[in-house]
Amino acid sequence: MVMNKNWELEASKCAKCGKCRSVCPVFLETGNESMVARGRISLAEAIRDNEIIYTKRLKEHIYSCKKCLRCVHICPSGVDYELIIQAMLDGIAENMGIPLLPKIIFRYFLPRRKLFDLLIKGASIFQKFIPGKRRGHMRHLPLLFTGKRWMPPLAPKTALQIFKQIPRLKNPKMRVAFFTGCLINYVYPDIAKAVVDVLNRLNIEVVVPSDQLCCGIPARSLGDSIAARALAERNKNVFESVRLGRIDAIVTACATCGQTLKRDYIHLLGDSWQTMAKKIYDISEFIEKFTHYETKPLGQQVTYHDPCHLYWAQNISREPRNILKRSANYVEMENAERCCGGGGIFSLTHYDLSLKINEHKMESIKETGADIVATNCPGCMMQISDGLAARNMPKKMLHTIQVLQMAMRNGKISR
Fold first, then answer.
1. Do residues 59 and 12 make contact, with C-beta atoms less than 8 angstroms apart?
2. Could you count the other beta carbons within 10 Å of the beta carbon of residue 271?
3. Under 8 Å CB-to-CB from 178, ≥6 apart: which residues?
4. Which pLDDT score is estimated for 378?
5. Is 273 exposed, middle or buried (0-12, 13-18, 19+ CB in 10 A)?
6. Mean per-residue pLDDT over the chain, rounded
7. Which of 201, 113, 123, 111 is CA-nearest to residue 156?
8. What are phi and psi of 103, to 5 degrees?
9. Residue 379 has what pLDDT?
10. I want to staple 80 with a disulfide (CB 3.0 to 4.6 A). Which of 10, 192, 236, 410 is the partner?
């Protein structure tokens, strides 16, 4: 077995106490010991000791991890489970290979923005011919992983195309670069519009580098370290060149992209990314730390879902709530930090299981009676929208920055 040896030290810390079982969203639905951190650590040790070999069944157990990091926070021994599961994913890729279609997309389409745009354009055309059925405007996602994933229609124009040219502000207070991420770029460009609009209203100039690529987390989640590192290096070069024009920060409106840029890039790029990592902020984190704003709260109730990759991976929960409390009638949902079942690649490879996890979130949302469900992750937006459509629950699904934009347009804005 070829795996990063650093995982062994972390695995040795595991006391096999089983506390991870009480919070793992996958285990809580399946009751399968092999689908929880303790069980997967035992599998990793068994591979190391040549007691088992890589098989399709083993691959299923490893791919079932959502990498939500809840187990890391509850672990009394402080095990860095993230390092262990990534070593397992890398080991599967090295010993069993990477599925052909994702490999082609990761290595040949994602690094070539124009080519990937053409692929997505073809998917959007094909998607129009797929009936929406009971899920309203949501349709199956063609191509990619040939799974059951439902999602909103792909946007006719991407965020990067929309913001290819942005007027410069006179004497801006700050200047930031915006990392869009794939879902915002191709599915939710209105989130990007809200980010730029809100920041411009606060006299902050926004640069949206057109050469930026996917953050690489889909490739890293399937153990394709070659593709993930190549994408990270390209993005590093793009944002370093922008920085030469003086930017104060890099902001993102995607929890998963934020985690990847802040944490995973340090593993992929080493010390060369350390300085840049300190400049990266979730949009709510940035607004709360660097700006002062006024709003006229909306006359609607809004509730908030904590994305795992924001709450557990970045320790950000207060900031989006502060924004929402100043933007509308805020109501807290029960277990707001409980996983919605999204998790990127997980919701493609384990769609039915992701829906079971999502059921708990639907119940929590229903109990709030809120008109708007807000979150800081487009992946969670897609997953929750899917659940709401399936249940025929007429709730508006928005990003926190979109709610703030509406509240700013509703009243006077402080610069």
1. no
2. 7
3. 163, 192, 195, 196, 206, 207, 208, 250, 251, 252, 253
4. 95
5. buried
6. 90
7. 123
8. -60, -45
9. 93
10. 10
